[in-house]
Specification:
Layout (H helix, E strand, L loop, with lengths): L1 H22 L6 H10 L4 E3 L2 E3 L2 E7 L3 E7 L6 H5 L2 H9 L15 H6 L9 E6 L3 E6 L16 E6 L6 E5 L6 E4 L6 H15 L4 E7 L15 E5 L2 H24 L5 H4 L4 E7 L12 H20 L5 E7 L9 H5 L3 E5 L4 H8 L13 E5 L4 E5 L5 H8 L10 H8 L17
Parallel strand pairs: 9-13, 9-14, 10-11, 10-12, 12-13
Antiparallel strand pairs: 1-2, 3-4, 4-6, 5-6, 7-8, 14-15, 15-16
Length: 431
């Protein structure tokens, strides 16, 4: 009888503590955060006075807690961003203790099994809007998300903090998109996911103008599908592709005007044209070596700016991606007309501002696929979906034009050296 009572008490205590941990009914972490900040050397000593990081307000949400701090003079947001890992590790460097006054060996196995459940791993995000904002989430985002098919002109962006919510980008509402992120963090994977989604959802009305300035390593799979109108791997080819897109845009402009409508939606035109440039930094005139190369890149940027300004109502959508977000690598007109931005982890706050016009992307965890999706009225962290080569192959295979050779095959034929004609003869004379 005594054993049953003791067992019931132990199991009840374990269940109660697990429930508390799961529902986040324990005290908030504001005091612990300030302690970690102090031990990390972020407070400022001014003579005999110590200027501390002051908590202004805190608020509890369904996902966790948000804390707002006023930072002391002499500190910047970058100082705190550099200590983000310290704060996150400090908050997770504890284990919930079960206060049971029983023999140490009693129910040892049960306690061991519940040890993981009683550990509440948290994820921390940091931003600055005049005040230092620290968000502590009850549970982290998944590090891997499977690819989802798109819905018409809506393409999957990623899993949000709400485990039941998946974010989609609607190209009918926001025509242009800017992508940024350091190499190997998921930018090219997202481009492949986006193209595959469009081909899957709208195969008859999707038209692609692809520019892969990484030498074709990312977009060559789509070279021979019927949706691809033009594809380029070098700046000279990029100019031809952009010019073809621009001329088609002008044709549509005249067609819409003849129908007396203002845009393709009103005119009943279902086709949509996607100009996708992977590594737009290669078209930056400032990086040109020769005068001819500079002229080509200036012309490319002129076409991109025209498409960004005029293309939205004519069914043109422009997606510009770069892994070198510095200075004017993204043409100013293109960026101003792109109301949606997706940034993976970057190396510095400057790079984050180039893509997002704000800091934060440099604070993303080093997780492939983790990104900030930002529109005019909202900013959200997502885990973008991972697409496999098998999914890409299965999606595009029915659309491959078998009668069209690959570019490299055409180039090989054109570059084959011609055999010299045998018009000259050699005459042997008797000595």
């Amino acid at each position: 009888m005594l054993f049953e009572i003791l067992t019931t008490t132990v199991m009840g205590s374990i269940a109660a503590k697990a429930f508390i941990a799961k529902q986040n009914l324990t005290d908030n972490d504001s005091g612990k955060i300030q302690r970690i900040i102090s031990l990390s050397g972020l407070n400022v000593t001014d003579g005999k006075d110590t200027l501390t990081t002051q908590l202004v307000r805190k608020q509890k949400y369904e996902w966790g807690w948000e804390y707002k701090y006023r930072i002391p003079y002499g500190r910047s947001f970058e100082d705190y961003a550099a200590k983000l890992k310290n704060i996150e590790d400090g908050l997770n460097n504890r284990r919930q203790q079960v206060d049971l006054k029983i023999d140490k060996n009693f129910l040892k196995n049960i306690l061991q099994l519940n040890k993981t459940k009683l550990t509440n791993q948290k994820e921390v995000e940091m931003s600055f809007d005049g005040l230092l904002c620290i968000r502590v989430y009850n549970s982290p985002l998944p590090s891997t998300v499977d690819h989802l098919p798109g819905k018409g002109w809506k393409v999957p962006v990623g899993q949000t903090r709400d485990q039941n919510a998946f974010k989609f980008h609607d190209f009918e509402k926001i025509p242009h998109l800017v992508l940024g992120g350091a190499t190997r963090y998921g930018k090219s994977n997202f481009i492949n996911s986006m193209i595959t989604s469009l081909v899957h959802s709208e195969p008859e009305h999707t038209h692609l103008y692809l520019i892969d300035l990484k030498g074709g390593v990312e977009l060559s799979d789509y070279e021979r599908i019927k949706q691809t109108e033009s594809i380029a791997y070098e700046p000279e080819e990029a100019l031809e592709t952009l010019k073809a897109a621009y001329e088609r845009m002008r044709e549509l402009q005249q067609e819409v005007r003849r129908k007396g409508k203002k845009n393709v939606q009103q005119a009943g035109i279902k086709d949509r044209y996607f100009v996708i440039v992977d590594e737009v930094g290669e078209l930056n005139p400032a990086e040109a070596i020769t005068r001819e190369e500079k002229a080509i890149k200036i012309e490319c940027q002129r076409y991109m700016s025209q498409i960004a300004r005029l293309g939205a109502g004519l069914g043109f959508r422009q997606i510009l991606a770069t892994q070198y977000p510095t200075g004017d690598v993204i043409p100013r007109q293109c960026k101003q007309n792109s109301d949606a931005k997706l940034s993976f982890r970057v190396q510095s706050a400057v790079a984050s501002r180039v893509v997002l016009d704000n800091e934060g992307a440099e604070c993303l965890p080093q997780i492939t696929g983790r990104a900030i999706y930002q529109t005019a009225d909202k900013r959200e962290i997502v885990q973008t979906p991972y697409i496999t080569n098998q999914i890409i192959k299965e999606t595009i295979e029915p659309h491959i034009r078998l009668d069209q050779p690959k570019k490299e095959e055409v180039n090989n034929v054109n570059s084959t050296p011609q055999q010299p004609s045998r018009t000259n003869t050699v005459t042997f004379e008797k000595a």
